[in-house]
Amino acid sequence: MNKKLLACAVLISASVASAAQNVMDVNTKKLGAPIQSTMYGIFFEDINFAADGGLYGELVKNRSFEFPQHLMGWQAFGNVDVEADGPFNRCPHYVKLSDPGHKDRRTGLVNEGFFGIGIKKGEQYRFSVWAKAPQGNGAIRVQLIDENSMAEHQEFVEQELAITSADWKKYTIQLTSPKDDKHAKLRIFLKGQKPVALEHISLFPVNTFKNRENGMRRDLAQALADLHPGIFRFPGGCIVEGTDLATRYQWKNSIGPVENRPINQNRWEHTFDFRYYPDYYQSYGLGFFEFFQLSEDIGAEPLPILNVGMACQYQNWNKESAHVKQDELQPYIDDCLDLIEFANGPADSKWGKVRAEMGHPAPFNMKYIGVGNEQWGEFYYERLKPFVAAIRAKYPDIKIVGTSGPVPEDVPDNTYRFEDGWKAMTALKADLVDEHYYRDEQWFLTHGLRYDTYSRKGPKVFAGEYACHGKGKKWNHYEAAILEAAFMTGFERNADIVHMTTPAPLFAHVDGWQWRPDQIWYDQTQMFKTVSYYVQQLYATNAGTNVLQLTMKSEGDKKGKPVANQPGQNGLFASAAFDSKTGDIIVKVANTSKQPQPIQLNFSDVNGDRTAQTLTLCHDGMDDENSISKPELITPKKGTAQVKGDKKKAVLTDQLAPMSFCIYRFKK
Predict the structure, then answer these.
(1) What is the pLDDT of residues 8-44, one digit of tens each?
(2) How much is the pLDDT for 125?
(3) 171-212 confidence digits (pLDDT tens)
(4) DSSP 254
(5) Is the pTM of this model over 0.85?
(6) CA quadruple 240, 244, 245, 248: dihedral positive or negative?
């Protein structure tokens, strides 16, 4: 046994066992509130190069030359011109490659990809381009190159492609890589003297998730599927708002032929000057059709968030002119109604037809829609009102998600007015209220009872963005993940009011991040799951169908209390559930103290001995984290624990290591 496992394997001595400390009672006779299938989900936002350069499989940056600096991401040499009368009206730019004027000169382009083009040995890559040859025929040489290699040749794979028409036409070839290379580049040479025009130059792995041509990077999408999410919120986040309304996310620009989707400036390009990426744009290749399709592929309910007619309030503080006037909101309301038709309408409806033409005749059966992200104040409440009225009138079955603002409580200067947000959402009869909280260790330790006192009347809770941001250390370290696991017992215990939760952000490129902590990190060819990811996975795959009451009596207590680090509970958090699909009892316990904690779990209405299966997160380095080089440094470990039962009850005793999280599961 290695040292780290040994540190977690603290045996229970006879004296500790007889002390029967931290006794918890689980009432298995009566089922509590249903646990919604949407309880544990994922939140996607294009931050940290999460879409282009991340989940979206495209390997070419600025493939349609639509960045404001049209050759950003490209190195051009020889006789290259950028033209603006191309075949796609919303993406008109293309390049023309012409004879450089001397037989020993070259004309062409090199694309750098996203921090390099990641290539894997033996994998196939689909190169495609829209092209024409003004003189009726022409040719290009397509190469994958390694400029830093000591090999005799820079190129390690090459194919010629004949351009056979004077009219625009799509051409496709496949390249097979003979080696691994995280930092390859795509190079295109003009072959011969006859000019060619190139538009929408693309390179995709053939082996995408579900093998879709405009698909997702397989390993990253599979990591999402492995979370077994119940809800998938997209496309953000602050990009829903944009720095200004011109740069807000517009879903109608993200559908239709991928070649004709206009780019959008990503507001995260310039938000943080200490992590500045001037080439961060949204290609919209990962658009709303792909979001709905991915939701379906991973078994999650889609939850799109649309703009309420407001730009980012942070960046437009008290600037009423930055937002849409109240009497000019109709196009934004129409966007919401049209989206519902796009997702759910019949194939012969206006927007349902667009969906069908994109390859999905059947409806996506969307049930939820969010309007506004992280907005607050009367300015937001008044704008949301006509959206709610219009959606209720036309689509009464759609559940509407509003927001209580960017913080989880009122702040001293009354800027955000969290309580007012809840009052407004209740008055508007929103179905769910989106709460956001990025807080430090102490907040997570002291807010385990947050939802126990919420009103059970009115909207339900959607914890739409949350993460433990360590004080002075905002990264994916182990301690923060354990505190998230502890806090989440409060979600489960209050499943009657908490219906959805999604931590945030989801993705981050190791060379292109702007915000952390995040759930999944990656470079061009590899990825790793953080401890926070494993916490989410443990909850989602052990959710159960109904809450079971779990309480603990401390010294002086006449009746049991919820286990949420209350006085006398020694840093413990716990919740319990029953899974009617399997007949399993599931108990989750987190020890947030710095000492081992013996526990005794008493189960009423359970007779006879049995073996509980356990899943444990335990590690002795609080600041440690997984990484590209050590992706499985900290992962859940399987084990067993014995349940001793007589005719009246069953008892499970165990000892939890300091700062650990354990799930116990056994048949009732």
Answers:
(1) 654 333 333 334 589 999 999 999 999 999 999 999 9
(2) 98
(3) 999 999 999 999 999 999 999 999 999 999 999 999 999 999
(4) G
(5) yes
(6) negative
Using DSSP's 3-state secondary structure scheme, residue 360 falls into: coil
Which residues on adjacent β-strands are paired with residue 119?
A: 181
Asked if 89 contacts 168 with a C-beta cutoff of 8 angstroms, the reply is no
Burial class of residue 505 (count of CB atoms within 10 Å of its CB; 0-12, 13-18, 19+): buried
Largest CA distance in the chain: 95
CB contact set of 570 (below 8 Å; sequence gap of 6+): 21, 22, 591, 593, 595, 597
Buried b (16+ CB within 10 A) or exposed e, 517-538: bbbbbbbbbebbbbbbbbbbbb
Instruction: Give the integer Cα–Cα distance in Å for 442 and 418.
Output: 20
- Residue pLDDT, tens place only, 47-85: 999 999 999 999 999 999 999 999 999 999 999 999 999
Q: Taking the CB of residue 162, how many other CB atoms lie within 10 A of it?
A: 14
Could you confirm whether 374 is annotated as catalytic? yes
Q: With 70 as the cut, is the pLDDT of residue 143 above it?
A: yes
222-244 residues labelled b (16+ CB within 10 A) or e (exposed): ebbeebbbbbbbbbbbbbbbbbb
Residue 47 and residue 521: Cα distance in Å, rounded? 12
Q: How many residues appear in the chain?
A: 668
Which residue type is seen at 283? S
Share of the chain above pLDDT 70, in %: 97
Residue 51 CB contacts under 8 Å (≥ 6 apart), including other chains: 282, 283, 285, 286
346-370 pLDDT, tens digit per residue, is 999 999 999 999 999 999 999 999 9
List Cβ neighbours of 470 (8 Å cut-off, separation of 6 or more). Answer: 440, 441, 477, 479, 480
Give the residue-averaged pLDDT of 585-612. Answer: 95
Q: Which residue in the list 45, 374, 435, 484 is annotated as catalytic?
A: 374
Q: H-helix or E-strand containing 102?
A: none
Write out pLDDT tens, residues 392-412: 999 999 999 999 999 999 877
Radius of gyration of the chain (CA): 28
Statement: residue 554 has pLDDT above 90: no
Cβ atoms within 10 A of the Cβ of 628, count?
Answer: 13
Please name which of 601, 593, 499 lies closest in space to residue 543, comparing C-alpha atoms: 499
The answer, yes or no, to whether the previous bond of 53 is cis (omega within 30 of 0) is: no
Contact at 8 Å (CB) between 62 and 279?
yes
Q: Which residues of 388-417 are buried (b: 16+ CB within 10 A; e: fewer)?
A: bebbeeebeebbbbbbbbbbbeeeeeeebb
Find where tokens 């009464």 sit.
396
Q: Read off φ and ψ for residue 493, nearest 5 degrees.
A: -60, -30
Please give the pLDDT value at position 414.
Answer: 62
Q: Where are the beta strands (DSSP E) in 165-254?
A: 169-176, 181-191, 196-205, 231-234
